[in-house]
Hints:
With 160 residues, the protein is of the alpha/beta class. 21% of the residues lie in helices and 34% in strands. It is built from five helices and eleven strands, in the order βββαβααβαβββββαβ. The strands form two sheets. A six-stranded mixed beta sheet has the order 1-2-3-4-5-6. It has a five-stranded mixed beta sheet with strand order 7-8-9-10-11, with no helix packed on it. The relative contact order is 0.17.
Amino acid sequence: MTRFASLGSGSRGNGTLIELGGTLILVDCGFTLRQTEDRLRRLGVRPGDLSAVLVTHEHADHIGGVAALAHRYAIPVHASWGTLRATSGRLIGTAFDSHGQFQIGDIEVTPVIVPHDAREPTQFIFAHGDVRLGVVSDLGHVTPFVIEKFQGLSGVLLES
């Protein structure tokens, strides 16, 4: 199955669901645990079915509910080194190299460094087979690097 859906975006919270193959990933979780559970339920998703939570950057509207969700459902958290460091221990997870790809289940994840007022902000491209999906939120401004990375995708979710 292939789908992506916004759980919500804005100063009150951000979250995006990505499903490729048999893998479900939540990008950011700026909602309370209860709000996140309700929003996932509306999409027919049980929180325990998530393979991982990926964090774009350390701002509260993106990480506010990550720790509670990850703890309650034993979901691995992945963020850049800079993002993890900037949370001063409020967020526990696995650091990824923001210049390299990595695998979560069926999905190949490519982080893309973006300009934003955070320590090491990244956005993501997700690939499985011939499908490539991009997620872009909180982009400070468009750069030639960002344009190059997000070309030729099957779909893109752009928060603006």
